[in-house]
Design a protein that fits this description.
Length: 259
């Protein structure tokens, strides 16, 4: 029998502490502040491109927050699905921009920045309901100053950026099932793993609203480090993509009953 499109909301955690409940300064101590400043002095390639005539300076650590790394869905019974997020997996995370740096003045219009994981996140367990999976990254506040040396024409703005992998893992069971009709059969007992192509962009996938007043986008693609898997264990079924066949660039993957 087909499942309801929306399951009951529930969130579980794979880490010992809840990222959602962490205060903004929960991770801040002298060692973390020193490490953050040291990291901020690295090349602009590590922290996104800096326009010509500008320089970027680290202001403070904002804390670690959870970031969406993938989702897997079904619209039938008798199937399980999971996600694996390994070391060197890369997330593309949105940048918040503000004229003053004050909370509530940021917009999610600063582009994106790629940040790599430095540890394995434990494989997200097999699920038989829709699931969104998250890990955590640490965010910093930067000041971007642009102008001409020796002239009083300098302008300033503030950026909120993810600057390093924080670790941990959480998951939320209860997402809606997306419409997916680019389907191929998958026999009972067989496992299908997707390891190539970009996934989707979650426009509010990085949960930074309590830090800067707005959530920013997050995207992680299917790769050797980010893998999604499906297995029908009680009957054969269909594996469907929202944008293309599962073997192409499917977008989101959904398990469905055989037509």
């Amino acid at each position: 029998m087909a499942k309801n499109l929306v399951a009951a909301r529930s969130e579980s955690t794979m880490s010992t502490a809840s990222v959602d409940d962490a205060a903004d300064d929960s991770f801040e101590d002298d060692a973390d502040a020193t490490a953050a400043e040291s990291l901020a002095q690295k090349s602009s390639l590590d922290y996104g491109p800096v326009p010509s005539g500008c320089f970027k300076s680290f202001q403070k650590d904002l804390g670690a927050r959870k970031v969406f790394v993938g989702g897997h869905y079904d619209y039938t019974d008798g199937v399980s699905h999971w996600l694996s997020f390994k070391e060197s997996a890369q997330s593309e995370i949105g940048i918040g921009v503000s004229a003053s740096g004050a909370k509530g003045t940021f917009s999610a219009s600063g582009g994106t920045k790629k940040v790599k994981a430095t540890d394995d996140v434990a494989d997200f367990d097999r699920s038989s309901v829709n699931e969104h999976d998250y890990t955590s990254y640490r965010f910093g506040l930067y000041k971007l100053s642009c102008g001409t040396s020796g002239l009083p024409n300098w302008s300033h703005k503030y950026l909120s950026e993810a600057y390093k992998f924080a670790g941990g893992g959480t998951y939320w069971k209860g997402a809606k099932t997306p419409a997916a009709w680019n389907c191929v059969p998958l026999a009972k007992g067989l496992t299908y793993k997707k390891t190539t192509s970009r996934a989707w962009t979650n426009s509010i996938g990085a949960k930074t609203s309590d830090l800067i007043g707005v959530d920013v986008s997050a995207q992680a693609g299917y790769s050797g480090e980010v893998t999604i898997g499906f297995q029908f264990w009680s009957k054969s079924g269909l594996l469907c993509g929202t944008k293309d066949d599962p073997g192409g660039k499917p977008g989101l993957l959904v398990a469905r009953a055989t037509k």
